[in-house]
Amino acid sequence: MQVDEGIAILKKNGHKYTDKRADILSYFVHAKGYRSAKALLAFMETSYQGISLDTIYRNLRLFEQLELLESREKNGEKLFKIACKSGTHHHHFVCESCGLTKPLDKCPLPVYTEELADYHIHTHAFELYGLCPTCHHS
Amino acid sequence: MQVDEGIAILKKNGHKYTDKRADILSYFVHAKGYRSAKALLAFMETSYQGISLDTIYRNLRLFEQLELLESREKNGEKLFKIACKSGTHHHHFVCESCGLTKPLDKCPLPVYTEELADYHIHTHAFELYGLCPTCHHS
DNA sequence: CTATTCTATCGTAATCATTTCGATTTGTAA
DNA sequence: TTACAAATCGAAATGATTACGATAGAATAG
Question: H-helix or E-strand containing B68?
Fold first, then answer.
């Protein structure tokens, strides 16, 4: 997902271009990992002093609705990362040191088709956490 | 995990017995699934009118520290369930209708040992959501 | 049984993340 | 460039959770 793709999706859905929105997308495109609303606010305040919390949270919600961002919750805080848009369903490894997210080839769901034959599986949550090779060796 | 086991663990760690604590544990032992602080409060108010929020949240935190309860987050709310204490690492299927949690035999981690040979896996999150046979057929 | 000593609880206020609101500004299509 | 819907601001509201000073209660030793 690139910034201009995100802007295009915004426009296609009747939303407007603003510099702030481009900068928010740019922040997540370059972050390559999960970031909090607070971290985004800190980043945005360097370019736009006095930016409203409304702007931060409204856009995070909008971007998540449009599937430009994905989120998870931790310690009562919502964390966001840029969406993958690879088209195919997949999971991630997340580096706890640098925040890098690595897409995984396989999905663990087939492991359970037998054990849960009588159950109706709707969704699943799966993520791995640890250290990427770079962080592990330094 | 039974109520008296939980009370024993409390005492072993220098905490005192109270009827409220026994009732909180009993609530989760019989719930067999995730419940919110608000749901626990509603239950406790039937026996103890005027119970303090402090009591609810302090004990939830304490029980989680002592690993009598486990938690996950959803929509900015923390949900708690009784701990399994089976000794062995395992995951759960969670019924979205009745809240039932079913322990799963297998762990999906082995699926990724090859793909993540250069990575250092620390922890992982995995849970399945859907309908249990009972809720599915009604 | 009673005194002593912590721990638990209450009632309430504070905190933190997030959402909402009325007024104003800005993007964009005609 | 004009008109209008959408975006933003500044600030207040909400909802879940945590914290605090004062009181009540459980455990232990004498």
Answer: none
